[in-house]
Amino acid sequence: MRNMRNLFPAAALILFFSTLNSQAxxxxxxxxxxxxxxxxxxxxxxxxxxxxxDCVRWAIANNIDIRQxxxxxxxADQNIGMAxxxxxxxxxxxxxxxxxxxxxxxYGPSQNAYNSSYNINASWTIWEGNARKYRVETNKLLxxxxxxxxxxxxxxxxxxxxxxxxxxxxxxxxxxIAKKSLEVSSAQAERTKRLxxxxxxxxxxxxxxxxxxxxxxxxxxxxxxxxxxxKITLKNLLNLDLxxxxxxxxxxxxxxxxxxxxxxxxxxxxxxxxxxxxxKSNELNKDIFDYNIKIAKSTYYPSISINxxxxxxxxxxxxxxxxNQMKNFFNENIGLSLSVPIYDGNVTRRAVNIAKLxxLxxxxxxxxxxxDLSQTIENLYIESDNSRAKYITGLTxxxxxxxxAELVDRQFELGLVNPLELLTAHNNLLNARLxxxxxxxxxxxxxxxxxxxxxxxxxxP
Length: 461
Fold this sequence. Notes:
Elements: H1 2-7, H2 10-17, H3 35-39, H4 52-62, H5 64-85, E1 90-101, E2 112-127, H6 131-197, H7 203-238, H8 265-275, H9 277-297, E3 303-315, H10 322-328, E4 331-339, H11 347-413, H12 419-455
Antiparallel strand pairs: 1-2, 2-3, 3-4
Helix pairs in contact: 2-6, 4-6, 5-6, 6-7, 6-9, 6-12, 8-11, 8-12, 9-11, 11-12
């Protein structure tokens, strides 16, 4: 039935939000955190009545995707440390223990000999085409990108919560409309029963009115089910137990909010490009690709390193004792090494070409991001215009169907209209109320999402 199709526009809300790329509010990815904040439960207390801000704070503290991004940031810290450690020298100890057998010695009394050597070696690369420097800078940028990805996760989470939150508010009002509709059909059934008992209407007419009452009872059950399902959606976003009784703050949006003036489309687009994490991350890609090219080119240059070591050894075939041999064989060495690449089979040239090709991704990504953002904002304005126009039309339609329903109800009591006309007027009034409610919330969603792109914030009054 038509009234049932309009009763729950959750699918329309989901389709609307599927066009969005990211979301934002006054909440951001944590800048400082430790491992304990990732592994331990959040110390936040659950509020009795959840505001939108409460939902976002709780989700940021407990969302799995955000915690996984925190791990990625910590891993990026370690990668920076590893890149810096490449500047440090290498120091190592080595020893060799061996036994040799000479079955037919021509000279010397012993056929068997035990040999040992002990060495401490050190090496330090002085210069290698600045590859280490570029790797450190690259890993620093990759860490910033991970934090930007965390900002994007937070922003996506916020508008996801906004969608679920407003769906709950819509569903609650839809339940109220279903209750009022049931009250009207119940009163009509009682009047029709009295009229039947008085002989002023037939049992068939009474059965038709009773069937409408049964339909409204079913509509109310469905409305309550949709309300419960919308709560489950929000609880999943908040990682709450399904058995937890979630209660959100009731908000009465004034009708004036539907027609809130919108900022110029071009201004919203330009502002969004300035703060959206995807655009910031792509700008970092430009520098990362440049560093990758420099790293690839670094193998064209020679490398200079210092090497040094300490060593000693022992041979049982010798005449001196172990202590004397260890002392006599003790040696020190230091040297400077220069490695000049001449030909490497085009390995470096291919690596440089690949790095240059990868750098083209920056321009392609920028074009794609601009196109996606432009399409998203364009769709938001179209949706806003449609919802506002539908809301204005719905106000007029609701007034007309309300007057018509009152008139038909009185005519039915006088026996001037049949039950079918009464049921039609009843369903038209129900549909008008639901369509007006749907267009109101869709207009609010559009307005707040546009405001999000224009200000980088999401708020519910």
